[in-house]
């Protein structure tokens, strides 16, 4: 169950069209695409955040590291 689906995520910045909402779409593609992944600009402390709006007992947070693309390391959430 994806309790973050439909919520309004935020992140430090965006690059190449990789908006934060893409991290919640359920895609686990290992290839970067602005339609399926999120991407921040190179930063010292990149961050991503979503407010679940109510308390949940979270048992699993899945982070998928995609392959390196265009000199960038891709993290799929």
TrEMBL record:
The keyword Calcium applies. Keywords: Calcium, Disulfide bond, Lectin, Metal-binding. The lineage of its organism: Eukaryota, Metazoa, Ecdysozoa, Arthropoda, Hexapoda. Residues 1-77 form the Fucolectin tachylectin-4 pentraxin-1 domain. It holds the Pfam family F5_F8_type_C_2. Belongs to the fucolectin family. Homotrimer. One of its GO terms (molecular function) is metal ion binding. It comes from the Eukaryota. This is Fucolectin tachylectin-4 pentraxin-1 domain-containing protein. Acts as a defensive agent. Recognizes blood group fucosylated oligosaccharides including A, B, H and Lewis B-type antigens. Does not recognize Lewis A antigen and has low affinity for monovalent haptens. One of its GO terms (biological process) is regulation of cellular defense response. Transmembrane segments: none annotated. The keyword Calcium applies. Residues 1-21 are annotated as: Disordered. Signal peptide: none annotated.
């Amino acid at each position: 169950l994806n309790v973050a689906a439909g919520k309004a995520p935020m992140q430090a910045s965006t690059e190449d069209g990789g908006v934060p909402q893409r991290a919640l779409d359920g895609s686990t593609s290992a290839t970067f695409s602005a339609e399926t992944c999120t991407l921040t600009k190179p930063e010292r402390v990149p961050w991503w955040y979503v407010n679940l709006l109510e308390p949940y007992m979270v048992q699993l947070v899945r982070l998928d590291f995609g392959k390196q693309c265009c000199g960038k390391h891709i993290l799929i959430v």
